[in-house]
Amino acid sequence: MTSTQQYLIAHGIKPSVHRIGIMEYLLSHRTHPTVDEVYSDLLPGIPTLSKTTVYNTMKLFVEQGVAIQVDIDERNARFDGVIEAHAHFYCKKCGCIKDLPLPQIDWAMPETSDFTVEETSINLKGVCAECKKKS
């Protein structure tokens, strides 16, 4: 059994050829891909793959906590296999998305609080270093 299979099983996801391929893609491509990008890149190696399967798998991965949906690009939902807390930077010129580390923050709410934080999202937008060099 591969480590990807074990990872999916540990998160309550039944492994399949499609799910394993999509998870491995997310973990090895840190580009925050869209469903269309994952589908296009994986289709040659998994000819039985459909866009619907990729979409449903991404939804399942987010629900089970093995991926996050990154809503930084107004046009596309993007996905990230890195689930540890981090921020995202979106370049308004080239559209790249980069992971940024977060400072150590205690996300626990005071016991007197009447709400619970279940997720956080920190997104920054601007111009990346590569695009600044081209200007």
Structural topology:
Blueprint: H1 3-10, H2 17-28, H3 35-42, H4 51-64, E1 68-70, E2 78-80, E3 87-91, E4 97-100, E5 123-126, H5 129-134
Parallel strand pairs: 3-5
Antiparallel strand pairs: 1-2, 3-4
Overview of the structural elements:
36% of the residues lie in helices and 14% in strands. The chain is an alpha+beta fold and 135 residues long. The strands form two sheets. The chain has a three-stranded mixed beta sheet, with no helix packed on it. A two-stranded antiparallel ribbon has the order 1-2. Strand 1 (68-70) and strand 2 form a beta hairpin.
**Beta-strand percent range:** 5-15%
Mean pLDDT: 91
Strand adjacency order, main sheet: 4-3-5
- The 3D shape can be described as flat
Low-pLDDT ranges: none
Major beta-sheet overview: 3 strands, mixed
Q: What percentage of residues falls in helices of 4 or more residues?
A: 25-40%
Number of E strands: 5
Backbone CA Rg: 17 Å
Structural class: alpha+beta
Counting DSSP H or I runs of 4 or more residues, the number of helices is 5
End-to-end CA span? 49 Å
Task: Report the order of strands and helices.
Answer: HHHHEEEEEH
